[in-house]
Amino acid sequence: MMSGRPCLAVAVVAATLASPVFGQDPEPADALDQQLMDLYAIVVGTQLTTRCAIFDDTTTYLTPLEQTAAEYRLRQMTSALAAEVENIADVVANMRADALQIPCGAASLDRLLDFNRSLSRDLVDVALLAWREIEIAECNYFVDDDFLESAAHAQDQAEGIDISGTPARVAYVQRTAAEWVTTFEENCQNLAFDPTRTLPGLVALALPTGQ
């Protein structure tokens, strides 16, 4: 379990963001450093969107749907990294503090936000593909009619989805969507299972109703 390295990784990424050459191919990094860099990018992208999107029209920030997916990925990565980085909560807190120092509309944000949009697109495609087969009516979840309406809307949207990209991306989306379908099938009769906290559920709730 690592403890000291995350601070270095954060400093490296922060310096990269501040550099005029941000956006060029980075130097090779080991797996943990790369994960921390990705985590930093998500933290900054989501934090700057929350802080700046309402009043800064110089930059295209994340949409609510993209923000939802990116924040899901942030929680997922933070949980996964806890096994390797013992102070991961402090590391993320430091990343959030760094994000506060980045001005709205900074030129270096464009590619960083594109990174967030790309990972969000993957996760939204996963969720919508899963909704093609999820039988929400089988779930013991009758508390929130709004969620059931959102689920029905997601299923409608899923009918027209086209999973494109590299073979690796298509395989990832299909595999992960199938895993979510299985998760719903195996847990829907469990009263402790809350579909609104799953990736498909979060995406369903965040989908624009006019889409």
Give an overview of the whole structure.
With 211 residues, the chain is mostly helical. Helices cover 63% and strands 0% of the residues. It is built from eight helices and no strands. α2 packs across α5 (109-131), α5 (109-131) packs across α7 (167-187) and α6 crosses α8 (199-206). The chain is globular. The protein starts with a helix and ends in a 5-residue tail after the last helix. Residues 3-28 have low confidence and may be disordered.
Quick structural gist:
The protein has 211 residues and is an all-alpha fold. The protein is 63% helix and 0% strand.
Give helix % range: 55-70%
Computed over alpha carbons, the radius of gyration is 18 Å
Average pLDDT figure:
85
> Helix tally?
8
The arrangement of helices and strands along the chain is HHHHHHHH
Chain-wise SSE layout:
Layout: H1 5-18, H2 31-52, H3 64-81, H4 88-100, H5 109-131, H6 145-158, H7 167-187, H8 199-206
Descriptive tags:
8 helices; 211 residues; single chain; 0% strand; disordered N terminus; mainly alpha
